[in-house]
Please model this.
Amino acid sequence: MNITSYRLRSLREAKGLSQREVAERIGMTRTAYNKYERGTSRPVRKLNELTALFGVTTDYLLGRDATAFENQVTGLASHDYNQIQKYLGLSSENKALADIMLDALHERERKACAEKSPPADA
Model:
């Protein structure tokens, strides 16, 4: 097992996905994807899809930059990290829906904070 295959397996398991689910999301067969995780084949043609699905850089996935990904998530709570990973695994359509919901919740929080604060000239 090489660094790429190890990271693919770890990232997939962290997202709670099966090999079949990953393969379907990136447009290939489970058997072909399994070769990536076993290290018998390198994911050259599917790098963009895999990095988008798992929210990592190609350098991280290929073992070129071990700290880049860890630095991105330093300081995040485990729950927050998991939520970000879920978001990154969404389709473009579902990301757009999540963005709308997040924007609405953010605006709701902003208004609630503004209502609690006394007026500036009081």
About this structure: The mean pLDDT is 84. DSSP finds eight helices and no strands in the chain. The chain has two domains: 3-75, 90-122. The radius of gyration is 19 Å.
